[in-house]
């Protein structure tokens, strides 16, 4: 444990974080959809940009390293856990009000901890389209913006106007707009900039609420049919390689269903590694290495992880 962690816990309490939002030795398996990962020295949950700033100021004053997470749906945390502070952005207590509206679209500024699914339902109830395709992605808006999350032809990059962030080095405000957002396939300028995304302004076109609802239901059914949603995972393990599909290549190597320890290439969708119940991060990493080796030997393609790997080995 980082020496200053007990002092940071006290400082965060004094700064107004309730004890329910602070946890020492927080098992990261409880904060990731993979249900894998050793303990974080200290985990703090922030529900507004001002709480994010308070937590970062406190960590900075005691030189405690900070790791950011949203819903942990794209993460593999190693078995030794994470040293220092894990700052987790969570659903805000109050929904955000529209910034401006015109006949064609609505600008909505939302806290980065807002869940994508919750935002999609809210937008649907107001007859705003654009988020239906993303409604089944189990992440936060901030994590989604950093990863440029996308599905079924939709990508957050198509909806994002502005990203507000704080620099992790000096806590100065940063604004990303237009080309500076640097969106690419499952990446963005924010991923490399050493920032925490605090809020995101979305431009949502007006649509028909019944049609949006029907589209959300149709896509949820498609996900249930194709993806192993009954087992913990972090979604697609590898990025789509140029000119191919990771899942198809993995399948053609005969790896569907292959397991190491508690980790398994999903029987239902070979692009997902799933946790059969007692997987360790070491099991997942060994399985990923095996998949990469076999795919490389057969297709000459080195699959690149889509999931982010954090923390220390056991
Ligand atoms: C069943 C399942 C299905 C999925 N389907 C899809 C899909 O269809 N399309 C898709 O794109 N993804 C999919 N994913 C992956 C995942 O949901 C997305 O990548 C999501 O956007 C991650 O958001 P998160 O809040 O969980 O981020 P996390 O996993 O918590 O973090 C992801 C990365 O973003 C960083 N980060 C998080 N929040 C912030 C912030 N506020 N500021 C700066 N950095 C931050 C973290 O440090 C980390 O590097 C799926 C995952 C699962 C489990």
How are the SSEs placed, and which strands pair?
Elements lengths: L4 H10 L7 E6 L11 E8 L2 H13 L4 E4 L5 E3 L4 E8 L8 E4 L3 E7 L4 H10 L15 H7 L2 E2 L2 E2 L4 E8 L5 E5 L11 H4 L2 E11 L3 H18 L6 E4 L9 H7 L6 E2 L2 E3 L6 E4 L5 H19 L8 E3 L4
Bound molecules: flavin-adenine dinucleotide.
Task: Describe, in plain words, how this protein is organized in 3D.
The protein has 314 residues and is of the alpha+beta class. The chain has three domains: 85 residues, 2-Layer Sandwich (Uridine Diphospho-n-acetylenolpyruvylglucosamine Reductase, domain 2); 116 residues, Uridine Diphospho-n-acetylenolpyruvylglucosamine Reductase, domain 3; 83 residues, UDP-N-acetylenolpyruvoylglucosamine reductase, C-terminal domain (Uridine Diphospho-n-acetylenolpyruvylglucosamine Reductase, domain 1, Alpha-Beta Complex), CATH 3.90.78. 28% of the residues lie in helices and 27% in strands. The radius of gyration is 20 Å and the shape is globular. Bound molecules: flavin-adenine dinucleotide. Flavin-adenine dinucleotide binds next to strand 3, helix 4, strand 8, strand 12 and strand 13.
């Amino acid at each position: 444990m980082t020496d200053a962690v007990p002092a940071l816990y006290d400082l965060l309490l004094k700064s107004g974080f309730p004890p329910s939002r602070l946890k020492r030795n927080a098992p990261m398996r409880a904060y990731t959809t993979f249900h894998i990962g050793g303990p974080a020295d200290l985990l703090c949950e922030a529900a507004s940009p001002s709480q994010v700033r308070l937590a970062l100021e406190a960590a900075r004053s005691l030189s405690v390293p900070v790791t950011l997470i949203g819903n942990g749906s794209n993460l593999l945390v190693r078995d030794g856990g994470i040293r220092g502070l894990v700052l987790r952005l969570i659903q805000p207590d109050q929904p955000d009000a529209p910034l401006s509206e015109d006949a064609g679209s609505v600008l909505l500024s939302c806290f980065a901890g807002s869940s994508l699914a919750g935002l999609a339902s809210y937008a649907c109830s107001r007859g705003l389209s654009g988020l239906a395709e993303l409604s089944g992605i189990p992440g936060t808006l901030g994590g989604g913006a950093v990863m440029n999350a996308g599905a079924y032809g939709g990508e957050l990059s198509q909806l994002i106007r502005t990203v507000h962030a704080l620099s992790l080095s000096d806590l100065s405000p940063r604004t990303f707009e237009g080309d500076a957002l640097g969106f690419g396939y499952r990446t963005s300028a924010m991923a490399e900039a050493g920032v925490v995304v605090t809020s995101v302004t979305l431009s949502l076109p007006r649509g028909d609420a019944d049609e949006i609802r029907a589209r959300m239901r149709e896509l949820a059914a498609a996900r249930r049919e194709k993806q192993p949603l009954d087992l913990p995972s972090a979604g697609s393990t590898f990025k789509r390689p140029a000119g191919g599909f990771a899942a198809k290549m993995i399948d053609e190597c005969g790896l569907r269903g292959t397991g190491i320890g508690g980790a398994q290439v999903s029987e239902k969708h070979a692009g997902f590694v799933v946790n059969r119940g007692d997987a360790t991060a070491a099991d997942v990493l060994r399985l990923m290495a095996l998949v990469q080796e076999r795919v490389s030997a057969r297709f000459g393609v080195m699959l690149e992880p889509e999931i982010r790997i954090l923390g220390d080995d056991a």
